Amino acid sequence: MSGVIGAAGRIAAVLAAALALAAAAERVAQAHAVGVSSGEYRLDGTNLYADLGLADRELARWQPALDKDHDGAISADELAAGHDLVGRALMAGLTVTAGERRCLGTMDRAWVTDGDGGAVLQVRFACPGPPARLTLAAPLLAALAPGHRHVARLFWNGKAHATVVDRAHPTWTVTDAAAAASAASLAWAMLKLGFEHILTGFDHLIFLFGLILVGGRLRSLIGVISAFTLAHSLTLALSTLSVFAPSPRLVEPAIALSIAYVGSENVFVPDARRRWRITFPFGLIHGFGFAGALREIALPRVQVPVALVSFNAGVELGQLAVLLAALPFVMVARRAPWFGERGVRTLSVAIAAGGVALFIVRLAQAR
């Protein structure tokens, strides 16, 4: 039995070290800055108009030739200079078919939005006739971040249709006879988005791992997680509803500092009792981070309540899945004397160091 426990502790150490390395690779992960784009499509007769919004860093990933100064972002001047390049790539990577016939696409305008690191591409597709069925295909998703999601909304004959496409499911077909997008379909899309968002949010996962690493009674751990959940749900709502939304330039470094603090506190705190007092304010900060994905989508106001509740539910389900997988593992590992005495301290120092490194990287990116 002791051999099994020892092996469990060593595996826990390897997993935590991997998470710390993932945090150091923030430029690769880009948990909140990229990963979601939006498309608002409007059919007017035989013309389909589209406003496509995505993060400028995702645009740089897709078309690296635009990034003349190699800073990982696209400026207004760089986008203007590469207008034709982007237009050609977009028409090859985003196609619209009316029935069986291809609609001819052109990019009319492209600009960088002020202050939020985004870009908008304005496109028009001319179809050969009034369509009864439209098919949108987006093979360009294969060139974006692996977890990228494109939230598409189509307005057609007074009806609104919505879906989420990704590199595994890059095609969407809508017919004129289709019912308007129900609240249920939007809720399901946002639920999946929230679930996937937490599973790819390395900073949040490391923070959660740091919270449960010290162990303690199950009741205390539940209190810690509940405080974190309540807090981030509150600020997620405030930010999404535009009541209060601090800049990501402040939120992202603050999240990194929360990781550093939890790792440091683990060295001195014997268990999770009363720890909810610190996880609640940190949860407020993490909630603003979660809100970034919904703000990038820019849903119409009428769809925000359903999207907010569903996205938050997806985040909670993802968080619960992670905890159900990790918590029993950590509790078993802590039975090994070496893990309780040295393993927790070593991993906590690694988490704290990773948080500090992440803070420095994000602070540099915010300049």
Q: What topology, given as strand order, has the largest sheet?
A: 5-6-2-1-8-9
Residue-averaged pLDDT = 81
- Measured by DSSP, the beta-strand proportion falls in 15-25%
Number of domains: 2
User: Which structural class matches the secondary elements?
Assistant: alpha+beta
Distance between the termini: 52 Å
Instruction: Write the H/E string, N to C.
Output: HHEEHHHEEEEEEEEHHHHHHH
Characterize the biggest β-sheet. Answer: 6 strands, mixed
Globally, the shape reads: elongated
Describe this structure in words.
By secondary structure, the protein is of the alpha+beta class. It has two domains: 2-32 and 201-366, no CATH class; 38-182, no CATH class. It has twelve helices and ten strands. The protein is elongated and about 75 Å long.
Key structural traits:
six-stranded mixed beta sheet; 367 residues; alpha+beta; disordered N terminus; four-stranded antiparallel beta sheet; 56% helix; 10 strands
